[in-house]
Amino acid sequence: MGEQIAAGHFRVVDFSVDAVTGSAAHFVRNNEQHEVALREFFQRTRSDYTRYNYLGEWHSHPSFDVRPSVTDVGSMLSLVEGERSIDFAVLLIVRLDVWLYLSHSISLFVRGQPPQMIHMT
């Protein structure tokens, strides 16, 4: 979940963590837990959807490359091309490497457009 700080620029301000489902090789979002996190976030931000909103998904690839898998891309495309009126979503994949270096990839999914890699500043 994030805050739009300028046109096209967002700051991540909160996220949900599912420590129960999935495994080191397979991510499964716990929809009920995620809904609770979103509801609490929107209560804290007074449902100011023009400033604060859901940005997308994140998960780790602890033993794999941080590029999105075919499954990752399919899941994100189903979000933005589906019936839930989600115009765009971002997928952040992270991995902790040697010496505490954080590897990451960020992919932007926009309805009607091919996925694109973006850079974090």
Question: What are the defining features of this structure?
Answer:
121 residues; alpha+beta; four-stranded mixed β-sheet; three-stranded antiparallel β-sheet; 2 helices
Structure commentary:
By secondary structure, the protein is of the alpha+beta class. It contains two helices and seven strands, in the order ββαββαβββ. α2 links the parallel β4 and β5. The protein is globular. The mean pLDDT is 87.
Identify the quaternary structure here. Answer: single chain
Biggest sheet descriptor: 4 strands, mixed
| Rg value | 15 Å
* Derived structural class: alpha+beta
Provide the low-confidence segments as ranges. Answer: none
Strand content: 25-35%
Q: Count of helical segments? A: 2
Query: How would you spell out the order of helices and strands?
Result: EEHEEHEEE
Number of strands: 7
* End-to-end distance: 17 Å
Name the helicity range.
Answer: 10-25%
The average pLDDT value, as a whole number, equals 87
The dominant shape is: globular
Strand order of the largest sheet: 4-5-6-7
Set down the secondary structure blueprint:
Blueprint: E1 2-6, E2 9-12, H1 31-44, E3 52-53, E4 56-60, H2 70-81, E5 88-96, E6 102-110, E7 116-118
Parallel strand pairs: 4-5
Antiparallel strand pairs: 1-2, 1-3, 5-6, 6-7
Short characterization:
The chain has 121 residues and is of the alpha+beta class. The chain is built from two helices and seven strands.
